[in-house]
Amino acid sequence: MRLLPSASKAGVIVGVIAALQTPGAVPDVPLAYGAFTATFAADGRFEMSGVGWPTFNGAWTLAGNAIEIVTSQPAQCAGVGRYTPTRAGTRLQLAVIEDACTPRRMILDRSDWRPASEALPRHERAILHTSADPLPALPPPAPDADAWPAFRGRDASGIAVKQNLPDQWDVKTGENVLWKIPIPGLAHSSPIVWGDRVFVTSAISSKPDATFKPGLYGDGDASDDRTPHRWMLYAIDRSTGRVLWERVATEGVPVSKRHVKSTYASATPATDGRIVVASFGSEGLFAYDVDGRFRWKVALGHLDVGAYDIPSYEWGPASSPIIWNGLVIVQCDTQRDSFLLALDAVSGKTVWRTPREELPSWGTPNVLATSAGPELVANASNFIRGYDPETGTERWRLGGSSKITAPTPILADGLILVSSGRGPERPIFAVKPGARGDLTLPQGQTSAGAVAWSYTGRGPYMPTPIAYGGRLYVLGNNAVFDAYQIATGETVFRARVPHPGSGFSASPVAADGRIFLSGEDGDIVVVEAGPEFKTIAVNHINELLMATPAISHGAMFVRTVSSLIAIGRR
Fold first, then answer.
1. Contact at 8 Å (CB) between 406 and 505?
2. Which of 40, 111, 211, 358 lies in the 20 to 30 Å Cα band around 198?
3. What's the CA gap between 125 and 332, in Å, rounded?
4. Alpha-carbon gap, residue 398 to 311, rounded angstroms
5. What is the pLDDT of residues 464-501, one digit of tens each?
């Protein structure tokens, strides 16, 4: 029997289901999938709901080899949706045949339902280590106080000093452009710098027109590029732009999917001046010395990172590795088994591994040198957490974050600053070091105990804020630019950055009283750090720009969709 949408004033479904559905075709118990629950009742009633989504009420029936679903709510979804069901034990899998209702199709297509009373099966992850035999002797690190060794530089602060960078440059004429070289492939990873070398990663697709989709939009689809790739690490001479060496870390068909706006090389590498570590997510971690000699690799298995509420939407990982006190630390928050992992930087062997009850996240962890000692802080949805970086033991947790997190925790003026930008929470937290236990604020409060101050509705979605000169500058994807007094949380100003174009994904960086804001369309806006918003210049790179620049040795290294550019005074 085919059900048709109602035309009655009550907006309910016309018709009565004449008979029960085929026994056993669909489990007649409450089902769960991601953040949703659904009931396919034996008398034909259908109901599906999830936090933040409309409730779907209606009816279902079997029509040949298809399940047909019609719902009276929400109003735009009154038409019939048809799905192919597959029964696997107690589980029900659905694949769309046709459904004009976008939200209903997003949830049900490729869905895998289990009885709500049945726990998800435990995911056993094997972490496999391989190293060079024998391990080559490590070169001594070049002394470099001006290094930019990881995402956003030292401590992820985004700040460099005594750089004498120009306010204006012109890529077309070459004014204040030291060099520009092509980098093949696609990557949102940022460049890093140590000594006379710049390191960048990339993923080179077999698809000649491989691309990503920039801009401000709500599309959660994955890219259709599943062709074989080569994952690359490049070492480039800082002064000339000459490629010193390149290595193929691995090649093959990607294990994970990626978001249509992301790439297969979105994690920034890290170095301590001896070793360079590149993370390619589900393809693994790879370590070379700074001269390009392979040391070790660690296979992490499939990192299923995507929409927290609809597991079929896989977006791929982006969290970057960090190196601290001889440890390589990575944050792997997935759909099934989130964890923090610390590896010995020299050998790649596991030092500690801490499981986490977490939703997928994309932020890079950070070890902060606080007044109470070093604290490893990881931003995530269920809780922001602080750990002992030596052992991986949890020290504190703070609830109230967004369901999607990307910004990296930073330290400034004695406070740990953590934010995230997905609504409705969109928080900014200022946490006092040395805390223990659950720091979650009581409902309606903005400060208590170890939380010095906080905001809701102000956090950035992708860019990590920058703390500079006693103020916290927060850049939103939509070009809203805020400043706060770090000591008190008082708002200094709210402004909108000119020429936002497709928005901002890269994080702000700063040097010598200037803050550099990199827009996706290729405009870098230079603003003056201070109590008022003041634009100094708008510079056009003329290429898509997603990666956060690096600043070192009097130059700013800008990674675009196809190039690496060194900007500085000649």
1. no
2. 211
3. 12
4. 25
5. 999 999 999 999 999 999 999 999 999 999 999 987 67
